[in-house]
Amino acid sequence: MKLKSLVLSALIAGAAAVSQGAAAQAIDRTVPLVTAGDGVGGFNAHFGDTFTASTVGSTFTDIFTFNIGTPFDASASVTSSFLNTPQTKDLLITSFSLYRYNPGTMAVLGTAIAGINETGFGSHPTDSWSLSSYGLTSGYYALRVDGQVLGTGGGAFGGDLTVSPVPEPATYGMLLAGLGLLGVAATRRKLVPRRI
């Protein structure tokens, strides 16, 4: 009888350990961004994720991919929202970054641009991160959000990305030439005597 209860206790303890291990697994997702053109060669995109109570204790890595064929400037931000589980911030964002990657291997190319943690102070503030980068070359890029689901309510985060094309050097040359012609015209106008 003791052997049966000992085996049963071991099975119950093993099942409990397996269920706790399953809840604390890492969640990894890669999703292509849906972009909306801004009418001047750039685009905007929104991204985010939602976590349920079944993911409590899990860490997560969400990767949002996009590509662009011209040099560009980019800025992005991400903010968490959370239910107010007593004594706990339900969703904790631990990092936010932008990087170029190889679409075949998903390997990071070069150095990632780290986001700035702008989370406020006080009791369980909402996480807020942002990043900006200028003069990026064309290619495949990804936004990465890392974090942890802490509270019993799960949680969610949302973000936005704005991409603006960088004018090519020829465009700057035409702009400078146009400004030079305006300057010449203004100087000529000053030199020509006015008749009254």
UniProtKB/TrEMBL annotation:
UniProt xrefs under InterPro entries: Ice-binding_C (IPR013424)
Alphabetical list of Pfam families matching this protein: PEP-CTERM
Residues annotated as signal peptide: 1-24
Keyword Zinc-finger: no
Keywords: Signal
Coiled-coil regions listed in the entry: none
Residue span(s) of domain Ice-binding protein C-terminal: 165-189
Protein name: FxDxF family PEP-CTERM protein
Organism annotation: Massilia norwichensis
